[in-house]
Amino acid sequence: xxxxxxxxxxxxxxxxxxLPLVFVAHCGRGLGALAWRLSGRHRRLAIDxxxxxxxxxxxxxxxxxxxxxxxxxxxxxxxCAVKTSAMSIExxxxxxxxGENNPLPEKKAGVALPNFVxxxxxxxxxxxxxxxxxxxxxxxxxxxxxxxxQPGLNRLLQEMRNRSGALFFExxxxxxxxxxxxxRGGLLLGLLGDQSSKGLRxxxxxxxxxxxxxxxxxxLRYECDLYxxxxxxxxxxxxxxxxxxxxxxxxxxxxxxxxxxxxEVNRSYEKAIRRDxxxxxxxxxxxxxx
Length: 290
Hints:
The chain has 290 residues and is of the alpha/beta class. The protein has one domain (2-284). The chain is built from ten helices and eleven strands. Helix 1 (2-18) runs parallel beside helix 7 (151-162) and helix 9 crosses helix 10.
């Protein structure tokens, strides 16, 4: 069964990767529109989440329009992620911008490169973070993931990701390997901070939600600068990787608590979401849980 799933999935992925990127984006938006019509549960959840977040700021008509566009964007970004995983950096350049605010120092003889931690999230085609290594080959890009329950699909997903040259660490089993990479220096570590995790209850759009502490914990432990990083959709099949706020890990010479750091990360996420609410696909998930 795993072999059937893997090879079936590989055929679909191979077909998508043969198509032009803009056509793939249109197909993804069509699939998202179809999901909007067919998945009443997720449609109601997205509308409810947006209503709670923007109560008093946006009308019901605006909320419904954002929710519908969120479905289309989700289809576009996920299908495009399949396509862009097979594109060279030269093919990708017309579709990807990099923000001008670049804190990464150049490599100097005899001086080890520092590590950076980026609190990333489900913004735009967030898989493009892994392509950062092609733009700054002196650094090593890395992130963590949780393996899928279906081994065939998990194998297929990791094969697509590994083409980027980034390192992927299974967060449950490969902690020692991640620590080794951090000890070598020159690591750009992206960690998702907008997933439900029982590390902390912190406010997010006025409601408490489970918030993971990993970006703060690792930035403190390995003395890394911590930034938020976002992928914004700028047009059909076009994106911009852009640094958000620098999140200070120390105050008056003393380490801040991980909880305070992640509360500030949540505030930075809020600013990015308000800039383009449909760019964040987690409206269709139960981000806020009792």
